[in-house]
Amino acid sequence: MNIFRIFGGRRRNFALTRIVSFSFGLLMASGMALVLFMSVKANFENTFSLLNDKAILTIQSMERQVRGHLDQVEDAATALKQLFDEGKMKPEPSDQTLADLSAAAAANGRISVIVIRDLRGNRFGIFKADNGKLWPFKEAADVPGRAPDSLPRLEPSSRPVWGQLVTHPTGVYANVTVPLLNDGETVGYLTAATSLASIGEAVKALDEGPDTTTFVVTSEGQVLVHSDQHLLITGAAPAKAPPASLEEFGDPVLSGIAAGQRYPTFQRAADLGIEVLGVEAADQEFIVMRVPVTGYSPEPWIIGQYFRATSVSREIQRVSGSALVGIAAIVIGVLIAVWLGRRVARPLRLLAAQSEHVGRLALDEVTPLPRSRVKEVDQVALAFNAMVIGLKAMNTYVPRSLFRKLMRIGLEQAALAREAELSILFTDIMGFTSLSESLTASETAAMLNEHFAILVAAVEEEGGTVDKFIGDGMMAFWGAPDARADHALAAARTAQKIGQAIMEQNRQRREKGLVPVRVRVGLHSGPVVVGNVGAQDRWNYTIVGDAVNVCERLQSLGREFAGTEDAIVLLSNATVRQLPEGACVERVGNQKLRGRSGDVEVWKLDLHGPVLAAQPAKGASAAE
């Protein structure tokens, strides 16, 4: 018996040691694997999110440059038309008219030519040379950018019409024509033209160096603007200066776009109409970003930028390398944990108690394990504390409120994709690109962090779920994973709090001499699919559906009604109908939203009135 007890005791002690060793090793492996998984996942998502942001910001900046340039020409033509229609200027080649046209051309740096043509075909106007000198002309037959011989059909009520590009030995000119009226009858036509060379200078300024190229081509394949005039990124030289066809110009990357493959990882850019392609040329792979620009010629132009794909592969290799290092760290950590587990029997209870907090994601309740005089136990304590720090770092990237909701409701049930009626909120900073141009990268990040802190605080205060940050904007929703009948009211209260917080912040910024941060907010309620969306190895708890698009476009519509206000909130009628009676909203009217066939009734939320009462809305919910 004594021998049995001795061996039995040894077996029990040995078993306990192995259980403790295995359990502690498993805990270490699970914790480190979770941190590694979330870190690698966040790195991959951030990498491709930044690439999407680059595509969106770069192409949208180019598009704004081109449209801004041409819109100034159109605005000048419209302003001159008004002067002629009101009789303040005469459609005749008098010295006074030529002087007035000269003043208009000198005041607008975008205009190269202004031509007046009467109904008999007589022409006169102003030509501005590259050095800025103005040349008035009468009956000139070969003026650069002159009114085309075949004008587009224009009625007295016609808006400005952009014609075909005019090619001249001095360059290629885009031109816009308006009718000139006298007592409602057409008496002539005014054409304002701008040289594509000046547009090219604005586009070339967005070229980020020798590894990137910006371009503007027509839909027929004519190269209008190209930032590499002397040496292409592939190492060859252009065969001909723009304007030239793709074959004549000789850029293998542009010529290979037709055979390019779309990148599925740039879906966010694709949703905004920006096409991102992979093109092989000169034994290299390039990433091409492009978008069509319509409205300035009968056929659309294509503007874009391309760069070597190695810049993307380097980022992916860096993230993959960090994953391998993390896996190696897990293996080493597990081996050390098994060895140390033999000597942690006494502090096991304390470790188990703290691990329970970690399992519930109650990281704020975790008390760091105390240091020990025993080296091995001390190392375990340090490793556990480091794990908690890692989990807290992970929780920085994953909303803790969403985590807790999913855990409380049940991850499988809550994350299962289902249809539900929710209220959605979209925000965006007005003029963010121009606002950030004067800031360094760290200053821009600090400004965005402060801005998002205000938004997230308002959302979480009203029990909402922050879905994602999109550049300088944010998307949030109410009604999932926690179902609630007053989701529209909660969303409206959040928008009102955001607006009031932004106004207070801007008051302080103005006192400090800083530029205010102006915000657009869109609110819409409707049916969406909510739950896990993605692939087996990459899920995202989010919402999808037409209601999301309506909300985003309501936010975009805010630019037409913002005026000088620091914040504007536009609501759909579907949301307003679920608010209590007396809600502080003002009807804007039926509005046409981009990409939708019918009109949407839009309301504006009063941000200066009292905050909406926190009570469930009465009446049945409705969705548009």
Automatic annotation (TrEMBL):
<protein>
    <submittedName>
        <fullName>Adenylate/guanylate cyclase domain-containing protein</fullName>
    </submittedName>
</protein>
<keyword id="KW-0812">Transmembrane</keyword>
<keyword id="KW-0472">Membrane</keyword>
<keyword id="KW-1133">Transmembrane helix</keyword>
<feature type="transmembrane region" description="Helical">
    <location>
        <begin position="20"/>
        <end position="40"/>
    </location>
</feature>
<dbReference type="InterPro" id="IPR029787">
    <property type="entry name" value="Nucleotide_cyclase"/>
</dbReference>
<dbReference type="Pfam" id="PF00672">
    <property type="entry name" value="HAMP"/>
</dbReference>
<dbReference type="InterPro" id="IPR001054">
    <property type="entry name" value="A/G_cyclase"/>
</dbReference>
<feature type="domain" description="HAMP">
    <location>
        <begin position="342"/>
        <end position="396"/>
    </location>
</feature>
<dbReference type="InterPro" id="IPR050697">
    <property type="entry name" value="Adenylyl/Guanylyl_Cyclase_3/4"/>
</dbReference>
<feature type="transmembrane region" description="Helical">
    <location>
        <begin position="319"/>
        <end position="340"/>
    </location>
</feature>
<feature type="domain" description="Guanylate cyclase">
    <location>
        <begin position="423"/>
        <end position="555"/>
    </location>
</feature>
<dbReference type="Pfam" id="PF00211">
    <property type="entry name" value="Guanylate_cyc"/>
</dbReference>
<dbReference type="InterPro" id="IPR003660">
    <property type="entry name" value="HAMP_dom"/>
</dbReference>
